Every structure is written in C-alpha cells, then in structure tokens.
Amino acid sequence: MTTLVLIGTGVVGERIINQALKLGTYDIVGIFDENTARMEELAATYNLPTAASLEALLDLTPDWVYIGTPPVSHAPLTEKIAARGLHVLSEKPLAHDASDGEKMVAAVQEAGVKSAMNFPLMYGAAVQKIRDILAAQELGEVTRIELHTHFPHWPRPWQQNPWIATREQGGFIREIFPHYLQLTNHLFGGINIIAHDTTYPKDSTRCETSVAAFAKTDAGIPVVINGMSGAAQIERIDYKIFGTKKMLSLRNWGDVLVSEADAPEVQLELGAEKQLLEAVANDGFVVTFEEGLKVQQWIDELLK
Questions:
Q1: Percent of the chain, pLDDT > 70?
Q2: In this predicted structure, what is the pLDDT of residue 274?
Q3: What global pTM score does this model have?
Q4: pLDDT of 146-165, one tens digit each?
Q5: How far is CA 254 from CA 94, 137, 204, 290, in A?
Q6: What is the set of domains in the chain, with CATH numbers?
Q7: CB contact set of 92 (below 8 Å; sequence gap of 6+)
C-alpha cells in the first residue's frame, strides 16, 4: 500500500480521493483543509481521517503528500513537505510564478524526494492514441500546431472559489493552458513565444479575458494559441496538429478526431484509461517539477 495525505479538499482533491480509492493500492491516512466544513464533509462521505493542522498531517509520515491548494501556496508547502523527506504531488500550475517554481524544484532536489504533477490529460487514453499516431507518422510531416480555448463563463459554473478568477492566481491561462503546453513539450519539445497579446479587464484584481499568441517549437513548427472567456458559444477546447497527410484534433480533453482534405472528421476509438496515481505508485511516467517549471515559464510570459 502507498500511503497518501491530501492538503486541500476542493473539487480536484475529491477526484484524487476517488482515484485513490478506486485503485485500491492507496491508503489515505489523512486530509487537511483550512476550510473545515468542506474537510469534514469529505471525511464523512469517504470515511477518511482528518488532521487538526498541517504539522499534524505531515507527522503521519505518508509516502506522498498531495497539494491541492491555490498556486501561491505551492512553494512554501513543497519546502515544508520535502524537508520532512516526503514525496510531493502538486496540482498545476506548478506555482504562482517561475520564481516560486524554481524554489520547488530546488526543494525536492536538495531533499532527494520524488515529485509529480497532476496533469490528468498526460496520463489518459487520448494522449496515448496521439503518441501512437505520431510514432506511426500517420499525419505526415507536422506543419502547424494550434490551441483554441473558448469559455462562455470564467470561472466555469462548477469551479467557483475565491481565487480562480483573480489576476494574482487565477484565469484560464494558469488553469487550462498548462495541460496543453505540457502536452506540446512532451510531443514536440520546448517552445519559444515570439509574440502575444493578453487582454485584461479594467478591474485590476480580475484575470485575463483573452489571449492570442504565436510561438515556434524548438524544431521550428509554428504554434498558434488563442483563448478567450465570455465567448458566445458552448465551452470548447481544441488542440490541433496539422500534418501533410492528415489533421488531428484533441477536443474537449478526451475526444481524438482525424480528418483528410475535403473529408469530414472521424472520431477514433481509444484504449483503456491510465491513472496518475497508478504511475506514481509504480514509478511510471509522471510529469516532474522540473518539467512543470518549463511550462510555468511559458505561462508567465503569456500573462505579461
């Protein structure tokens, strides 16, 4: 059994709980949240023990500590956890900014502990299908990559909390883009952002409302990035890979579609889903803090 504790019991934290319980190879030995009402709710729902403080939680000496708190808290929490010799699983984005991300990387490296980031997209069946298609060169030569994210509302109705729409910690660039920038880095290598325009509302406390950017991968493949909130349409996210033979689209996180010139898109069947916690427990592929820092640097650039 791999022992696990959780700091933060929000929507995604509850998903981690469900994933751990479903796998059956984890023992959740404690949860902690300053929002005691929410903590007690989840404790009662899933029959989990609670901790009275952060220190009491870490005193349980679990194998892994999950950080599911706002980004500004990730660096100081990582430093405390790593100093205890415990492995760290963090939500994305890695940190509030790249400077904090560097502190997190240094903390886990100096302590000699493992790190992993919760990028569910990276461990799913859709990305495995994309890897297989690219390895088989079914698209031909890749000539262009595009990311389009359109949200009628930000924050989304199910994602209401005090920080998700703030300029300091929230916004879709921080919340959504890391998944797809990480995917790009994994499939095609790093990117260089050549130009971008990010729009903010007059209220200086509120997050961005739109962004348009142009980048190139290290291999010179053009990358177009386009996002906005307040869009007059249903929520839609499209990550497109254009090739000389076919075009592939990863739509709304989990649908993989391909098309050829003058032909409609065809949705592909996917294999079995893999889980982050399965990889964490078995030393499988995970996104480390070092990789997360690269993405954080690109996020910082887009937020300027």
A1: 100
A2: 83
A3: 0.93
A4: 999 999 999 999 988 889 99
A5: 23, 21, 34, 26
A6: 2-119 (3.40.50.720), 125-273 (3.30.360.10)
A7: 117, 118, 119, 178, 179, 182, 292, 295
Contact 282, 152 (CB under 8 A): no
Q: Which two tokens stand for residue 131?
A: 């890897």
CB 160 within 8 A of CB 170: no
Amino acid letter for position 192: N
Nearest CA-CA partner of 184 in 239, 243, 119, 256: 239
Please state the separation of Cα 36 from the chain's center in Å: 26
What CA–CA distance (Å, rounded) separates 304 from 292? 19
Ranges of residues in the chain whose predicted pLDDT is under 50: none
Three-class secondary structure of residue 39 per DSSP:
helix
For residue 42, give both structure tokens. 């989840």
d(CA 212, CA 228): 9
Residue 240 burial by CB count (10 A; 0-12/13-18/19+): exposed, middle or buried? middle
Task: Tell me which H or E stretch contains 247.
Answer: strand 247-251
Name 199's bridge partners.
210
Residue whose tokens read 């190139």: 216
Q: What is the DSSP letter of 102?
A: H
C-alpha 161: how far from chain center:
18
- Side chain identity at residue 62, one-letter code: P
The DSSP code for 269 is P
Q: 3-state class of 197 per DSSP?
A: strand
- Predicted local confidence at residue 272, as pLDDT: 86
